[in-house]
Design goal:
about 170 residues, mainly alpha, 4 helices, about 70% helix, about 0% strand
Length: about 170
């Protein structure tokens, strides 16, 4: 029992002395580091560096916008046919009404090219996020611009389709 009382203080003394470093040892300095000299109250820049636009992403976005614009001319041609058919449509279930409905269906099918282009832009953005866990500001702006361009085409086409549907529901 007496031995146990002597061992405990000796162990504490050994641990306390063991924590001290020998002079001239290869230990890191405790003097302030360069990063500690930076004032943490300095304001950070509000806008991050935009980075560079990924050329592959840029070309794929341009292809999606180009497809939507190219298919818009075919949509406009079919819209003119559907407008004429809707103007000539008789009462519901008549042959002229059915012909107008078929023209409207062809128009809706053509509108699918625009929605596919919009989906392609969304897929490019989602893939970029999955692969890199973020989108650089330059790439984000390019994606937003492409989505806005296709969105404007889509909004116009959707309005035309909705107007034709209303005319044929009378």
């Amino acid at each position: 029992m007496r031995t146990a009382r002597l061992i405990a203080p000796a162990a504490l003394l050994f641990l306390a002395i063991g924590g001290c470093a020998r002079p001239g040892g290869d230990y890191p300095s405790l003097s302030p580091r360069a990063a500690e000299a930076i004032d943490p109250r300095l304001p950070l820049p509000s806008e991050p560096s935009p980075g560079t636009l990924d050329p592959t992403l840029s070309s794929r976005l341009a292809a999606a916008v180009g497809t939507a614009r190219a298919e818009a001319s075919a949509f406009d041609r079919l819209a003119a046919i559907a407008e004429r058919a809707a103007a000539a449509a008789g009462p519901s279930q008549s042959e002229s009404w059915v012909a107008a409905q078929q023209a409207l269906s062809a128009l809706v099918a053509q509108h699918g090219a625009t929605t596919r282009a919009a989906a392609d832009v969304d897929a490019l953005a989602a893939t970029r996020i999955d692969e890199t866990r973020w989108i650089s500001p330059a790439n984000r702006v390019a994606i937003e611009d492409a989505a806005a361009s296709i969105g404007a085409i889509n909004a116009r086409q959707t309005a035309i389709i909705a107007g034709l549907r209303r005319r044929l529901e009378r």
